[in-house]
Amino acid sequence: MRSNDRATLGGARISGGLMNSTSLVRRRWWRRAAVMAAAGALAAGSMLNPASAKTYTHASGATVDAPETAVIGSSFTITGTNWTNIAGDAGSVIAVKFDAGAHQHKPGQEIKHPQTGTVLAADIWDVFVADADGTFTRTITLPTAANSVGAAPKAVGGSYTVNLLSGSLGVQDQGRGVPLTLGVVAASTPDPDPTTTTPTPDPTTTTPDPDPTTTTPDPDPTTTAPDPDPTTPAEPSSKADIDVSVDIPVTGGLAVNVASNKLDLGQAKLSSDLSSLDASGTLPAVTVADTRNSNPGWSLTATASNFSASEGLTLDGKYLGIGKTRVVSASAGQTLSLGAGVAPGVGFTGGTTLASAAAGAGQGSATFEADLQLKAPAATTPGDYVSVVTITVS
User: Which domain of life does the UniProt lineage start with (predicted)?
Assistant: First the structure.
């Protein structure tokens, strides 16, 4: 009996041991399955909701669930509750603006009121009507360069303030304003399949070495290139020179021209110190034209004669002075020197230089002007006096 008891007891222990072991295995299997299920749920959740959502609540009780980010150039979806009119028997008309209307539709792309068909202001980006119970789901496109004007679309890293507004577009609608913050992110790139590997080449495969017994024969060292025939004489040569000459004459010319051959200084007036009779005027424009191919340069001079009047009256030409020469115009490449002028009382009856051009820098056309001033003695006999001013270029 004791032997049987021992056997039975031993069998019970064995049976009990199996039961406990089986129970432990089951518990471990369920725990592992639960962990795998939780991991799968997390993975599925991250794939379905790439951007975390945020709930915004208005004082009226209206709510909006919106993502915190959206991919640049794409769209995003929002949902809401309790968006009804004041009576609570109809859904609100909800307008959407980006950054308080800074982003607007391009001309011709404006949207219309969903109930009246009226074209709305360009700064209203979207408009829709909530369901009668105040709920809605709406997908909204982000502003891009192709669909908007006004403020520039936000780049990656920037953010929009998306304004949801109700009240003015609906009948007896409740006024609300709910600002949402929406960040702009770049599109994500999927990771490569980690199970894909590049096969490793078979280390047992080797490239056979070339046959070491095979050699490239050296060229025959006894073979040389034949030398040219030293007995062949060089071809004889001869040359003759021909001198080609041509006489190129000096062409072109040098000329001077004045805008007018008359200048009236008017009536002379007694100076304030009663010492002289004064008159003045501007010499008519003087133009020098040099077309000579030798380009030797030139000199422009002026000489005044003595004054003479009727009945044999005369006045020394020294009382006529000339001021500093001024350039009115000149051709490119000309180098000009200007005369400093001669004071009345000294005069230029012996000639004075108005302007000159250096050799190699006179070709072209240049126009000059200068002021004349007469200071005749106060005791000069009255009369109409004339002096001849001669302009010469050489």
Answer: Bacteria
